[in-house]
Amino acid sequence: xxxxxxxxxxxxxxxxxxxxxxxxxxxxxxxxxxxxxxxxxxxxxxxxxxxxxxxxxxxxxxxxxxxxxxxxxxxxxxxxxxxxxxxxxxxxxxxxxxxxxxxxxxxxxxxxxxxxxxxxxxxxxxxxxxxxxxxxxxxxxxxxxxxxxxxxxxxxxxxxxxxxxxxxxxxxxxxxxxxxxxxxxxxxxxxxxxxxxxxxxxxxxxxxxxxxxxxxxxxxxxxxxxxxxxxxxxxxxxxxxxxxxxxxxxxxxxxxxxxxxxxxxxxxxxxxxxxxxxxxxxxxxxxxxxxxxxxxxxxxxxxxxxxxx
Length: 309
Prior knowledge:
Blueprint: E1 2-6, E2 10-15, E3 18-21, H1 37-43, H2 45-55, E4 61-62, E5 68-69, E6 78-81, E7 99-101, E8 107-108, E9 113-115, E10 123-134, H3 143-146, E11 150-162, H4 171-175, E12 181-189, E13 200-205, E14 208-214, H5 222-230, E15 240-242, E16 258-263, E17 267-274, E18 280-281, H6 286-291, E19 301-303
Parallel strand pairs: 6-15, 8-12, 9-17
Antiparallel strand pairs: 1-2, 1-5, 1-12, 2-3, 3-4, 6-7, 10-11, 10-15, 11-12, 13-14, 13-16, 16-17, 18-19
């Protein structure tokens, strides 16, 4: 089942090119704001699944005529796995498991705009990632039981403002900017994805393929990620776990860019990029930059505010 938010945070079930409004069928789920209704529904999914399926038999409207919203607009936690791919098998050793926390206010949805802030970043990038939506509270769970705690899957972009001063641990100011977590277009429930560890991921920038990899290349698989994260803090229903990316295809995000992230069996997340300062970089990936023999992990800024004189 594909669950989405649309228009004024109505809950819907996506069926082909239609969306069926199921909000009224679940309106008795406790919630403070309609944007929180999805978390209440996830917590009570076993009790409401049949009711949702029945409501989804109703008449739908065209997806093309609605505004899709982030499928979990206000998650309690966003945990992002760091350096969690073997980079097409080019890493000689499996990296140590690691993660960081991303601010919930960074969430935006399908069709929204990532806004690049007025800061002296070396480059702005967005990492294509498969994200898990937690379905059941997870505290120190074993890997063998971890998959039972997943409600569903969605597309996720981990936006980054790289190279901000001062040098050192800058993850907070690099990762938690407003609009730096495009998510969507919907949640595909876990029963629809037989093997999340074998999904093709493709990111295009203005129609050109920049990232293309498969989730089978993860250094630490999904059960291990949940096991490790839940040993640090409890994962709650509606929390988002982003599973990492293959860095070789990372590329600069610039003003006017139209980004599409497609994950096999899930869907396509589309969003725009805006930069009032019109900063530019060469339109190449990290891998292309490395193969050209240039210094640093990514191409340097070429024009706009903060560009080197």
